[in-house]
Amino acid sequence: MPGGPKCQVDAAKAWLAAREAELLPVRYFHLVFTLPRPIPGIAHQNKRELYNLLTRASADTVIKIAADPKHLGARVGVTSVLHTWGSAMTHHPHVHMIVPGGGLSADGTGWIACRGNFFLSVRVLSCLYRRLILDGLARRHKVGKLHFFAGHARCVDRAAFDAVLQPLRRIDGVVYAKEPFAGPGAVPAYLSRYTHRVAVSNNRLIPMDDQGITFRVKDCRLNGPGRHKTVTLGTDEFIRRFLIRALPKGQHRIRHCGFFGNANRAANNTRIRELLGAETPVRGKVRDDTIERSDAHRRVLAFPCPCCGGQLIIVETIAPEQHPRAPPGTARAAA
């Protein structure tokens, strides 16, 4: 892997250029939703069902609690990013969520801001989120949508599965609130690290040797210098962990809910800016010497390559009943 994984760079820049134009001039908050053990192991065997449950339950939790007049009493917007791995590339499904510090009133005529650096109670969020996850698991088990293998095979039995879920109804620590962003300008920098990232970045890789592949990891459970260390894996184990991050076909990693929902996003954004007395920014372009080209006739399609996320460029248009020509020769290609 001499050059490291860079196939998502162009897709990330294009996505960020679109999101920058939608940033509101308010404080943004960062929430993390996790799955308690042993649910990640079950999720590994039921990726589509559990990943959908995780993203929907986390978004529903924030939207419902925020809409409650006892908390915020507003319709909020949510951008959530699904991650399926940890620093050591082990299976660790969780959701990173970015939420503006406020929302639209029920009638849509006003903006309701949260109180300073406080968005919503983490304890209240945890209670509802935990219930949605466990109830969703029970429903899916009842209708036969979950499959169990190896160490989880006993969960095929409903009583055994209920026994696994029961202790989880009393645990805490499934929702974390991180420090709020220092203004909307800090949001793109964060999103650029998380939206299109791969399981291990270039600067974490150490050249491999006969022992295997070594890379740097960070243990978030520890503080101080000891949290940073290196891990060496055999080539086959490294590839297995790297592929854990792969989502089921058609699964969306990034989702927008609330007033950020795709159907009314532009109208809501315009309305909120009017309420806040803010100007509507001009949508920026992706600024990259490798993307902007001097040959203006070169057309780039709006959607990315389905394989690597890179840009699709039209190199030739074939008219009806015209046979495609052979690839250009070396001299012509160089020109």
TrEMBL record:
GO molecular function: DNA binding; transposase activity
Listed GO biological process terms: DNA transposition
Domain spans labelled Transposase zinc-binding: 5-35
Residue intervals of the Transposase IS801/IS1294 domain: 77-263
UniProt superkingdom: Bacteria
Name of a matching Pfam family: Zn_Tnp_IS91
PANTHER family given in the database record: ISSOD25 TRANSPOSASE TNPA_ISSOD25 (PTHR37023:SF1), TRANSPOSASE (PTHR37023)
Name of the protein in its database record: Uncharacterized protein
